[in-house]
Amino acid sequence: MSDDRASGTTRSNVLVGLMSGTSADGISAAAVRFEGERAESPSATLLAYHEQPYASAQRDRLLRALDGASLAKLARLDFELGAWLADAALAVIGAAGLVPRDVRAIASHGHTIWHEAPLATWQIGQSAVIAERAGVDVISDFRVRDVAAGGQGAPLVAIADRLLFGADAEWRALQNIGGIANVSAVPPRGVEASVVAFDTGPGVAIIDGVVRTVSPGLAYDVDGALALRGTAIESVVSDSLSEPYFASPPPKSTGRELFNRAYIARFIERCRAASATATNEDIIATAVSFTARSIADAYRRFVTAPVADVVLSGGGARNPALVAALTTALAPLPVKTFDTVFFDGDAKEAVAFAFLGRLFLDRRAANIAAATGARGPRVLGKLTPA
Q: What single string gives the DSSP state of each residue in 223-267?
C-alpha cells in the first residue's frame, strides 16, 4: 500500500474510512482506493490521510460520556460528533484531490461510549448527519452485528490485518495501541490458518489519564519525556497485572468501562501508597511499564503462533518511552513501527474501516468469528444513503 494521488480514480472503488478511537485524541480520516475483485488478495492504495484533533472541550465531553451523562447530552453529542466526522471526511476527500461524487461510500466507526460484549455495544456519531453534510452514502455501526451474533464486536480490524498487512512468508503480530490495545496474530499471505485477535488491555488510556491528572494542562506525555525521567514502581506494576481481565482467555474485549477514570484514580493512589517519595514522573513511568507488561503478558499467555515480528501502530507507537518498554518486554521478538513497513501508522485503523465498508458493499463477511467469538461470519454495518 502506498500514497498515490494519480488521476483515474472512480466512484466505484474509493471509500473514506473514519475512526475516533478510545484515546479521544481526534478523528482519523483516510481516502482509500481498492482494486481487484478477489477477497483473498485485495489491493488498497492510501490516497490521502487527515487528522482532525479534538479541542480540549470536545475531548472532555467524549471522555465524560461514560460518567453518567444525561440522555439529552448523549443525544446532542451523537449529532455533533456526526458533524465533526463529516468535516473530517470532506477534508480528506479534498486532500485526495477528489469531490464527494468521486467517493463510493464513507465507512465510519464512530466513537465507542459503551462496550459490554456480548450484551451490548454503542458507538455514536450520527450517520444521518454525515450523509446529509457530505452527500455520500455512509456505512456505520459495524460492531453491533457481531455482538448480536454472540461475539465481542472486537477487534474488527483483524480481517484487514490478515488480508492487507500480513507478511509474505512468516507470521506477524499487528499491535495497535490506541486508548485500548489490541493484537492480531496473522499467518503469512495465502496460508490458511486461524487468526488470533483480541484486546490485550489498556493502550494509552491509563498513561494519558495519569498525565492529565498529575499534570493538568497536558493531554498526554509528549514524546514520552515525563516517563523517561521517572522510575517505575515495580510493586504497583505487578499488582496491576493481577486484574482478572488479563488472565481471561480470548475471545475477549475491553474498554473504558473497565479502564476508566475511577481505575486511573486508584492506580495513582496505589503508586503514592507504595512510595511516599514517588514523583509524578515515577507514576507516569509506572503506567508505561504496566501497559507494556500487560501487552507482553498477553502474548505469552495467548499468542501461540510463531510470530516473527511485531508491528506497532496507533498513538502509543508515537510514545518513545512506551515503545522502548514494549521492546524490552517482548524481547527477543523484533518490534517495528507500522510507518517503517507500510504507511503512516496513524492512518491504519481508518484504512481498516474503509476496508470493512468495501466488504459491506460486496456483501462479504467482515468479522473473523474465531477471533470475536460470534456464532459465525457476518456482514457488518448499516447503510445510510446520501
A: GGHHHHTS---HHHHHHHTT-HHHHSPSS----TTTSSHHHHHHH
pLDDT per position as a tens digit, 202-236: 999 999 999 999 999 898 999 999 999 999 999 99
| Nearest to 372, CA basis, from 173, 133, 140, 196 | 196
In terms of domains, do 329 and 349 share one? no
| Residue 337 and residue 195 share a domain | yes
Provide the grid cell at 65.
Answer: 460520556
Q: Beta strands 120-124 and 111-116: pairing type?
A: antiparallel
Tell whether 337 and 367 lie within a shared domain: no
Cα 97 off chain centre by: 27
Q: Read off the CATH number of the domain in which 248 is found.
A: 3.30.420.40
Task: Calculate the alpha carbon distances from 318 to 204, 353, 369 in Å.
Answer: 11, 21, 31
Q: At what angle do helices 261-274 and 280-302 cross, to 10 degrees?
A: 110
pLDDT tens per residue, range 70-112: 999 999 999 999 999 999 999 999 999 999 999 999 999 999 9
d(CA 127, CA 74): 15
Question: What domain range is 294 assigned to?
Answer: 166-341
pTM value? 0.90
Is residue 244 domain-shared with residue 298, that is, in the same domain?
yes
